[in-house]
Design brief:
The protein has twelve helices and 24 strands. It is an alpha/beta fold. It has two domains: 218 residues, Enolpyruvate transferase domain (UDP-n-acetylglucosamine1-carboxyvinyl-transferase, Chain, Alpha-beta prism); 212 residues, Enolpyruvate transferase domain (UDP-n-acetylglucosamine1-carboxyvinyl-transferase, Chain), CATH 3.65.10.10. It binds shikimate-3-phosphate (S3P).
Length: 444
C-alpha cells in the first residue's frame, strides 16, 4: 500500500557521467498476471524475477485472500498453488490494492464471473481513478457492482452466478479493460470476444495461451478481435518474468542526458506492444544499441547499451501511444534537453493514470523553467538544447513515474530538481534510488 505514509521529499543534482550495469527489476504487468493466472491454474506455478514492488505485493495478498497459496521462496522467486478457473473463494475482508490500477482492474475481472462478493479499495490515487470502464463490461457478464460516485473505489462487486459470454468493443485503448474482460471470460461458458481498435500490450493473451487457454487474435475491419474459449483448465507454469522496459526507461533516459554517460541494461523486455519509447528515442537521435536480441519465456528481450546523446525534438506518431503510454512522463522530461520541440498527441489516457500525468508533467516542467503547451489530449515540450535551468519542486500526486521522471531530469539540470514526495516509487521500482546511485547519480 502506498500513499498512506508520510511524504518522502527527494532531490537530484548534476554530477559526473553515469556508468555501469543497471539490473532492472521484473516487469510489473507480467508480474501481476503471473500471480493472477497462477492463482487460476491447477498445480504449482513457479515464478522467477517477480517484481517485489508494493503494487505486486498487494496483488499477491489479494490472490491469497481469494484462496490461492502464494509463497515467497527468495528474492523474486515465488510459488503460487492455484485454485483453478472458477475456484476463487470469497475473501473475508476488503481487498486493498494500494496504488495498483492494473491489480484492482484485473482482479475484478477475474472474480466477476464467480458467485462470490468482494469489496475493493486502494490509496488516495487509486480511489480517484475511474472504474466504470471495467464495471460496465463486467456487468454484461452479469456481475453487479456498487461504488462511489462515478463508480470509484471503494467498490463492492457481486460476481455473476450464471455468467453469459460477451462480445465487447473496448471504448479506450487499454490493456486493463481488455484483460479484465478476458479474465472474466475464463469462467464463462462459450466464447468471449474483445475487440480493440488499437493494439495494446498483449501479455494477457500471450500468457493465457501459455497456461493452456484457447485464445486467438485476428485483425478485422473493426480492429483486433480476440476470442477466448471459456472454462479451460489452466495448467501451472514456470515463468521467467522479463525485466521491465517501463522501469528501464528511467536510467536509459538519464544516461542520454548526462554528458559522457554509458550504461548497459541486461535482459530488458522488448515486446513490441511495450517498446515504443525506445523507437521514439532512436528517432530523436539517441545512441541505443540492442545487443543479444533473443526470446525468453515467449517475450523478446535484449541487452541495451546507452550512450549520452544530443537529442532533437520530434512529433511522436499518435498510433504509437499505446506502446509507450507509461513512458510519456520520462519522455517529456528528456524532451526538455532536446533541440526543438517534441509533440505528443493522442495521449488523453494520460489523464486517468496514477494522476493526471499531462497536468503533473506540465506543471513540474514549468517549475524547472521549461516552456510547454498543453491541451486535453496533447503535450508539447519546447526543448532547450541541453540547457535546462531546474531548481523547482515538482508535485508528484502519489505517482511513481512522475517522481522518477523529475529525479532523472535533475541529474542534468543547472540547479537541483526536487520532488515533494517520492514514496510512490516503491510501488513499481523499489530499488530505483540505489540502482541510480550505483550508476553514479546524485539522488538524495
Ligand atoms: C497496464 C496497462 C496500462 C498501463 C499500466 C499497466 C497493464 O494501463 O498504463 O501501467 O499491465 O495492463 P491501461 O490499460 O489503462 O492503458
Amino acid at each position: 500500500m502506498s500513499g498512506h505514509g508520510t511524504p518522502i521529499p527527494m532531490q537530484s543534482r548534476a554530477g559526473g557521467p553515469l556508468s555501469g550495469t543497471a539490473e532492472i527489476p521484473g516487469d510489473k504487468s507480467v508480474s501481476h498476471r503471473s500471480l493472477i493466472l497462477g492463482a487460476l491454474s491447477v498445480g504449482q506455478t513457479n515464478i522467477r524475477g517477480l517484481l517485489e514492488g508494493e503494487d505486486i505485493l498487494d496483488t499477491a495478498k489479494a490472490m491469497a485472500s481469494f484462496g490461492a497459496d502464494v509463497e515467497r521462496i527468495g528474492y523474486g522467486e515465488w510459488t503460487v498453488n492455484g485454485v483453478g478457473v472458477g475456484g476463487f473463494a470469497e475473501p473475508e475482508d476488503v481487498i486493498d490494492c494500494g496504488n495498483a490500477g492494473t491489480g484492482v482492474r484485473l482482479i475484478m475481472g477475474a472474480m466477476s464471473t464467480s458467485p462470490i462478493t468482494a469489496t475493493f479499495t486502494g490509496d488516495a490515487s487509486l480511489r480517484s481513478r475511474p472504474m466504470g470502464r471495467i464495471t460496465d463490461p463486467l456487468a454484461l457478464f452479469g456481475a453487479q457492482s456498487v461504488g462511489r460516485d462515478k463508480g470509484m473505489l471503494p467498490l463492492t462487486m457481486v460476481g455473476a452466478r450464471d455468467p453469459l459470454p460477451v462480445r465487447y468493443t473496448s471504448p479506450h485503448p487499454s490493456a486493463q479493460i481488455k484483460s479484465a474482460v478476458l479474465l472474466a471470460g475464463l469462467n464463462t461458458p462459450g466464447k468471449t470476444v474483445l475487440i480493440e481498435k488499437e493494439k495494446t500490450r498483449d501479455h494477457t493473451e500471450r500468457m493465457l495461451r501459455g497456461f493452456g487457454a484457447e485464445i486467438e487474435t485476428v485483425e478485422t475491419d473493426e480492429g483486433f478481435e480476440i476470442t477466448l474459449t471459456g472454462q479451460p483448465e489452466l495448467k501451472a507454469q514456470d515463468i521467467a518474468v522479463p525485466r521491465d522496459p517501463s522501469s528501464a526507461a528511467f536510467p536509459v533516459c538519464a544516461a542520454l542526458i548526462v554528458e559522457g554517460s554509458e550504461i548497459v541494461l541486461p535482459n530488458i523486455g522488448l515486446n513490441p506492444t511495450r517498446a515504443g519509447l525506445f523507437t521514439t528515442l532512436v528517432e530523436m537521435g539517441a545512441d541505443i544499441t540492442f545487443e543479444n536480441e533473443r526470446e525468453e519465456g515467449g517475450e523478446p528481450v535484449a541487452d541495451l547499451r546507452v550512450k549520452a546523446s544530443k537529442l532533437k525534438g520530434i512529433e511522436v506518431p499518435e498510433d504509437r501511444a499505446p506502446s509507450m503510454i507509461d513512458e510519456y512522463p520520462i519522455l517529456s522530461a528528456v524532451a526538455a534537453f532536446a533541440t526543438g520541440k517534441t509533440v505528443m498527441r493522442g495521449v488523453k489516457e494520460l489523464r486517468v493514470k496514477e494522476c493526471d500525468r499531462i497536468d503533473a508533467m506540465a506543471r513540474g516542467l514549468e517549475a524547472q523553467g521549461v516552456q510547454i503547451e498543453e491541451g486535453e489530449d496533447f503535450l508539447i515540450v519546447h526543448g532547450q538544447s541541453g540547457d535546462v535551468k531546474g531548481g523547482g519542486t515538482a508535485k508528484t500526486f502519489i505517482d511513481h513515474r512522475i517522481a522518477m521522471s523529475f529525479l532523472c531530469m535533475g541529474l542534468a539540470t543547472k540547479e537541483p530538481v526536487s520532488v515533494d514526495d517520492g514514496a510512490a516509487i516503491a510501488t513499481s521500482f523499489p530499488i530505483f534510488q540505489d540502482l541510480m546511485k550505483g550508476l553514479g547519480a546524485d539522488i538524495s
